[in-house]
Amino acid sequence: MKKFYLIFCLALMLPALVLRAQKPITIMEDSLLVGKYMHPGISVTIPEANYDKTLKSWIKQIEAGTKSKVVTEDGMMTLFGAMLKKISPNPVNMYSKLLNQDTLNKLMVCIELKKDEYLEPALGDAQMMVARDYLKAFAKDQYIEFIKEEVAVEEKKLKDLKGQLTSLENNYAKTQKKAGSSRSTISSEQEKLALMNSQLSQLSTDIQKQNADLISMSTGPEKEAQAARVKELDKNRKKLQKDISKTEKNIKNAESSIAQADESIPLNENEQTVMKQKIDEQTAVLQKYTDKLNTVKLY
C-alpha cells in the first residue's frame, strides 16, 4: 500500500519535474555591505538561470564602455569608473554580489555616484527607476536566454522523434515496394517455370525416342551421329533442369520476402502510431516551454 502511494505521489509530481512554470522577476530596494558599512542598493532575482553564465554576463555588461576591470574579493565585485549614462553622465563605482539561491540567483547592486554618495530613493526617484529598469532588463535577458536553451532542448527532442518517424515511414515504403516487386517476380517466374517444365517434358520424351533409335542402330557413322545427338539433348536437359532449380529458388526467395513484409508491416504501423503519439506529446511539451518564453518576454 505504501509503495502504491509513493508511485501515485511521484506520478502527480512528474509534470512539475518535467516543466517548471515561469517565475517572477522581483526587484526591490536593498542594502549591501561594502567594506565595513551597509550602503543602500537594489536587488533583483533571476529565476532558474545558470549561476556561472549569469556571473560572466554581468561582468561583461558592466565592463562595457570602460577600460576598467571588475575586481572580485569574497564574492564582492567592484568596478571603478563604470559607464552608466542613463543613470549618471559621470563614471560611477559599482559594488555587486551574485548569490546562488537554489532555483534562482539574486543580484545585489550598490552604485556610488560620487564619493560617499550612493544611489537611493532620497536622491531622486527618476534615477532609481532607471537603475531598477537596468537591473530588471539584465535579469529578464538572462532568464530568456535560459528558457531559450530549454526550448532548444525540446525542439531537438521533437526533431529527433520526427526523424525516427520519417525513418519508419521510409522503411514502410521500401518494404511495401519490395513486397510488390516480389509478387511481380513470383508471377513472372511462375510463367517461366510452367514453360520450362513443358519444355523439359518434351525434351525428356525426345531423349527417350532418340535413345531407342540409338539402341536399334548398328555400329557405324550413323550410330555415332545419333549418339552425339542424344548427348546434346541430354546436355540441354541438364541446363534446363538447372534453370528450373534457379527459377524455383527465385520464387521461394520472393515468397520469403513477402512473408517477412507481411510480418514487419503491421509492426511498423504500430511503431508509427506510437511515434506519432510521442510527437504529439512532445509538441505539447514544446508549446508549454514556448508559452513560458513568450510570457517572460512580456515581463
CATH class descriptor of the largest domain: Mainly Alpha
Oligomer: single chain
What portion of the residues fall into strands of 2 or more residues? 15-25%
Overall strand count: 7
Cα distance, first to last residue?
45 Å
Rg for CA atoms? 42 Å
DSSP helix count? 4
- What is the name of the CATH topology of the largest domain? Helix Hairpins
Identify the notable features of this structure and list them briefly.
seven-stranded antiparallel beta sheet; disordered N terminus; alpha+beta; 17% strand; 299 residues; Helix Hairpins; TATA-Binding Protein; 4 helices
How would you sum up this structure, described in words?
There is one protein chain. The chain has about 300 residues and is α+β, with helices and mostly antiparallel strands. The protein has two domains: about 100 residues, TATA-Binding Protein (2-Layer Sandwich); about 140 residues, Helix Hairpins (Orthogonal Bundle). The protein contains four helices and seven strands. Strands 1, 2, 3, 4, 5, 6 and 7 form a seven-stranded antiparallel sheet that branches. The protein starts with a helix and ends with a helix.
